Amino acid sequence: MSHPAPQPAFAIGSDLPVRRLGYGTVHLTGHGAWGPRGTDADASSVLRRAVELGVTLIDTADNYGPGIAEERVAAALHPYAEGLVIATKGGVVRTSADAWHIEGRPDRLRAMCEASLRRLRVDRIDLYQLHRFDPDVPAAEQLGALRELRDEGKIRHVGLDSVRAEQLQEALDLGIVPIVSVQNRYNVLDRVSEPLLKLCEAHGIAFLPWFPLGNGTLTGHPALTEIAAAHGATPSQVALAWLLHHSPVLCPTPGTGSVAHLEENVAAARLRLTDEDLVRLDALTAADV
Q1: Which of 67, 85, 124, 202 has the smallest set of CB atoms within 10 Å of its CB?
Q2: CA 179 to CA 159: how far, in whole Å?
Q3: Does pLDDT of 1 surpass 80?
């Protein structure tokens, strides 16, 4: 028996409706999210095709490139179509392909946000996510900086990236600024963030899973392969469809630099898994890789 179709949309912050299957831009940059990948024309083709296919959530970050992904988003899509939500992140500084420096001082967060505004060619960023909490800066100061930017109209909504459930709870308890999204590693075989997902469900917070396809490791998994064959689909589509069925707050944004792969990913939203499929997939763990 087919499971009821998952809800196709989610309202981030209650006022930003998006289709739950979005597009992530990290693969528009090179190894380690450093430098460009492919040509600007290639990137534009993928981004424009995503919008043509009905994607309404584009996820990027200032340190992808650094700066390159945001610039490519603007070059391809600005002026942005009505209803297209651009989410970006700040709080990490890059100095090489292998160097990621967490930076949460309020003055640096402001500078990073304002640089993103310029690269994206907007006056206000729809969703601005703190890429990492800086352990050397009080959480209240980091959230306070984002609150100031929100009060000034430079960002519409605030989210968090790579947090534990207790960190999200602390941010909610502080009440400095509403938190409308989190972005953590999560997929059918990697559910370390399940407690965080449950907290998001309880508060109506969007959960944008990164590595929703396990960075490619899920494509050869026997269970996904068998279920995909039964539906005339691909293992990647099964993995994405499972996320959409698993929780109404999950909004995966798989990334790719290929138009063909993008089309395959977006088509996963139409895949209806059966109750038996879901029972089998729900029972998988990281040990099943």
Answers
A1: 202
A2: 5
A3: no
